[in-house]
């Protein structure tokens, strides 16, 4: 009987410890003294599945505009919204949500209307509709960089993300 009690206690402890390890959540570190909507760092506990989502690009917003033109895809804000909606659909098809995103890399092309400089403000206007909201407060670690160009001449935005399965 003593061996049975010890075995049951060991089994219960193992289940408890195993359960708590599985229940660990992704830890998002805020930027100290800042309300800027990105995480300073994100920790993913062992045993979580990471999902790498390929770069998404904007959809055509004006079918009447010249194919491949900036007018066909819109400005940086419009393209950011389009790209993030596309990522949202991809994540949804995988059983994930935007709140599961832990890392984001953003590639912005210089906007001709901004003297060839990336429109970071326009990007942020689109981004904050999806991250750091009351409905979706989870913030990813994020990098934003200006690149010389993307595949289509009218594209100003490409975004790739890494998500963690809850």
Automatic annotation (TrEMBL):
<dbReference type="Pfam" id="PF01042">
    <property type="entry name" value="Ribonuc_L-PSP"/>
</dbReference>
<protein>
    <submittedName>
        <fullName>Enamine deaminase RidA (YjgF/YER057c/UK114 family)</fullName>
    </submittedName>
</protein>
<dbReference type="InterPro" id="IPR006175">
    <property type="entry name" value="YjgF/YER057c/UK114"/>
</dbReference>
<dbReference type="InterPro" id="IPR035959">
    <property type="entry name" value="RutC-like_sf"/>
</dbReference>
<keyword id="KW-0732">Signal</keyword>
<feature type="signal peptide">
    <location>
        <begin position="1"/>
        <end position="23"/>
    </location>
</feature>
<dbReference type="InterPro" id="IPR019897">
    <property type="entry name" value="RidA_CS"/>
</dbReference>
<comment type="similarity">
    <text>Belongs to the RutC family.</text>
</comment>
């Amino acid at each position: 009987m003593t061996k049975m009690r010890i075995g049951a206690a060991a089994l219960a402890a193992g289940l408890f410890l195993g359960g708590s390890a599985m229940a660990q959540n992704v830890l998002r570190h805020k930027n100290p003294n800042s309300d800027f909507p990105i995480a300073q760092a994100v920790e993913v506990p062992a045993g979580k599945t990471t999902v790498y989502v390929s770069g998404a690009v904007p959809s055509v917003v004006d079918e009447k505009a010249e194919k491949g033109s900036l007018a066909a895809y819109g400005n940086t804000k419009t393209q950011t919204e389009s790209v993030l909606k596309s990522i949202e659909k991809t994540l949804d098809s995988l059983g994930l949500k935007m709140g599961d995103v832990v890392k984001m890399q953003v590639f912005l092309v210089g906007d001709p209307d901004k003297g060839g400089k990336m429109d970071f403000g326009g990007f942020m206007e689109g981004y904050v509709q999806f991250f750091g909201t009351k409905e979706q407060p989870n913030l990813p670690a994020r990098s934003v960089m200006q690149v010389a160009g993307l595949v289509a001449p009218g594209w100003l935005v490409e975004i790739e993300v890494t998500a963690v399965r809850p």
